[in-house]
Amino acid sequence: MKTGKDKLRFFDNLYEQAREYRLDLAEELEHYRFQYKNGYSGKYGGAPYKIVRNITYELVESQINTDIPVPSVDPAPGGDKKRQKNAQTVKTLLSSLIKEQPFSRINDMDERYTYIYGGSVWVVEWDENKRKAGCRGDVCVFNRSPVDFIGQPGIYEITDMEYCFLEYDTTLDELERKYGISDAEKDRLLCSDDGSDTVRVRLCYYMNEEGRVSRFIWSKDRILSDIDDYYSRKRLLCPVCSGEYGRCSCSSGSSPIISSENFEIIEKDMTLSDGRVIKAGTKVPYYTPSRFPVLIRKNTSAEKTLLGQSDCSFIEAQQEEINKILSRVHEKMIMSGVYPYKPDDCRFRYDNSIGGKVLDLRTQDKPDSFGVLDTTPDISRDLVYVESIYKDAKKTLGISDAFVGDDEDNAKSGVARQIQVAQSEGRLVSKKIMKDSLYSELYRLIFEMYLAYADERRPVSDTDAFGKIIPGSFSRYDFLEYDDENGSYYYDDAYLFSADTDIPSSDLKSVLWSINLENYRSGGFGEPSDPMTLARYWCAQKRCGYPGAEANMKFFIYQEE
User: Fold this and answer.
1) Residue by residue, what is the 3-state secondary structure of 18-40?
2) Which end of the chain is more exposed for a tag (fewer CB within 10 A), N or C?
3) Range from 227-236, 278-287, 407-416, 498-507 carrying the lowest mean pLDDT
4) Quick check: pTM over 0.90?
5) pLDDT at 111 over 90
6) Where does 303-428 have alpha helices with state H?
7) In sequence order, what DSSP letters do the residues of 412-447 get, joined into one string?
8) Three-state SS for 454?
9) 200 with 192: CB under 8 angstroms?
């Protein structure tokens, strides 16, 4: 593999080739962004319309879903009790992570990226500098615009790529902290000379000659980071004696050799959660993920595309047509007016009356010879046509009136209204499936990061059906299995990740609240006067996200005790 400046030139050329290949896509993405922001595609230049009704923004925003898929983890078929317990521990770990990481903010941006561009990009990294519950390191989850992602030309799935690129802007201070750039380099790396201190950074994930994930980061002509075998543990060795760098006298003044570590030696007897004991001195492998830490969420699938299909592309024609009609209506209204008429020889005189002027009529003049001519056009048909086009746009995206909250539907009760919304959401089920699929992959990637780097046992706590806290912990060593045939340990990562479909969406919650109340009143949870029946009722409401349900549930449980 090339080194130094040769390696920089190699990745620069590789990046330029990939960027050239996606120029058409980059242009399309810019049109989608412009259409969402301005209400017309911008393909025709300038601002061609007098009036713009931005239905693109309206319909994209109406679909924003604040729900974050809840993780569900199961052992592969045939899993024993130990693996079932491990699966529950991982689920609890992931559920806690959702609360700790800024997932609500990330989801808010991810939703817009997905509908506007047809997809969004997710990146998962392990940050050794983070500290949590006395443990070193934790995952960091980022969401990126697909505008800043460039894949391998002609390859449409991340898992099939040999390399991919990410671009992002950062500050000089951040670059100095992470990569130690000198003061002399700062001015040279700036994006522009307008006074801002931003720097454009390019990152490439690639497969090395051994098929292991590697990472190369640079800005202009400065290499910032070059890590071969990115996921492996690294150790600095003396180039002379191969001992640990810095602990021997012969390493002084020489650069260390970076060695990838594939195994570790257990320093003292280790008791696992299931009672097994790994003896001191045992050699066990490090877990190494095998895929890029990059995921793509697609809006709806499309053939031979890295991203999915953009909502903007499907309603562009309706967006343009509505703007044309409304601009024509605008011209009609501007050109129209109310014009007075009178006999050509009538005179006005002014006095001190409230009206301010008096019209003198001649004896032979009649009052009906005076009046006004209203040239205001009838635009009702234009507006009906606009609404017809708007409905076509909604139908194209599978959005009903109930979904966007219009009052045209005849549902009377709140429950009936919510059911209509839920039914209309069913037409968008493909988008929900793609979101759930992304989160399933995301949860697996996070799990793999913990298997690879979470060295300390980490406390996690779960709750039972009645809200009581069940203390527990996650240890990557609990996933070690011994292969009798090969006489060695390996990490068992054969777990199934999905989104928990038992958790209701936000649109269905109020429906289920009402159903739970009806079941309680009818005795569906037991005798209504029994405190434990009330506890069961509030437990069901808690699972459906009812405000204050957890406090009520615990009150009746503790009252019973």
Assistant:
1) HHHHCHHHHHHHHHHHHHHHHCC
2) C
3) 407-416
4) no
5) yes
6) 311-314, 316-335, 380-397, 401-404, 414-426
7) -SHHHHHHHHHHHHHTTHHHHHHHHHHHHHHHHHHH
8) coil
9) no
